[in-house]
Design brief:
Residues 230-245 have a biased composition (Basic and acidic residues). Strand 1 (238-239) and strand 2 form a beta hairpin. The protein has ten helices and two strands. The protein has helices at 2-49, 53-66, 70-90, 94-106, 112-147, 151-162, 173-185, 203-220, 246-258, 269-281; strands at residues 238-239, 242-243. Helix content is 68%, strand content 1%.
Amino acid sequence: MKKALLLLTTGFALVLAGCGNSSSSSSNSTNNNDSKYKTEMTKGNSAVDNGKYAKASDHFEAATKLKKTDKAKASEKQADNLVKAKSLMNQRKFSDAKKALNKVIDQDNGNKKMTSYAKKLKKQVVKIQKNRNNYKLDIKNAKAMIKAGNGDQAKSLLEQVTKAKGIKGKYYSDLYTQAKTLLDSVPETTTKTDDTTTDANSSDDSTANTDTTTSSSSDDDQSNNPAAKGDFDVEKREVGGKEITDQDIANARQQLTDQGVKTVGAWSDNDIIRAIKNAHADGRTTIQPSDAKVR
């Protein structure tokens, strides 16, 4: 009987020892996973700080496999969508890029830095889209001007597009190429003159006619007279004692475009200069469509 009790007691002790070892092993494994999880999350957040979102996504994914938390999963999704948005921007697919950025911004339990960066990037996308629409409108108007025979105005408008800040960058280079190609195709302005013939048998009359023509040409030479060119009210490029530069004119055109004016391309530089002066006289720095009127 005593022997049986001894065996039973020994067996029970071994069972307890086994359970204790199993519990200890499980606890150690959990602690080890927690440590690795924290390490991966730290590395992911560090990658975010450095703007390396693809790398950040890899670390957040690894963290999720170690410990499924809302924070890790949300951070992984944000990083993936930022990578996607930047790729779409490089492909000039700005509407799709904006959708991806909205997902980053609206993500629950996300990384605050990625949310903030997505908001900043979205503003950039909106600005790029606005600029592209304006450049497209300018190119469209220039084509209409060329077709109507207003090559000089078309050339002026296209030059503004090709000289715009950042126009040769990756987000606008396609429009730069379009504008530059169209600009190079604008024919040079030429002035036709009537051919004159002389009769060899009437040299005296020819000489007289030549003298008369020379005299008339001299008397009627109005090359320096704006009215002779159809510009009866050419505006001096100066306002408030300062020169009105080409950039000032370009900025004024942009102001009109922002106000929804669809015919900005048809405005001559002279119209814009007059509008700038009239706006200045009214104490404004932003021109309005009505400012082009002669006062």
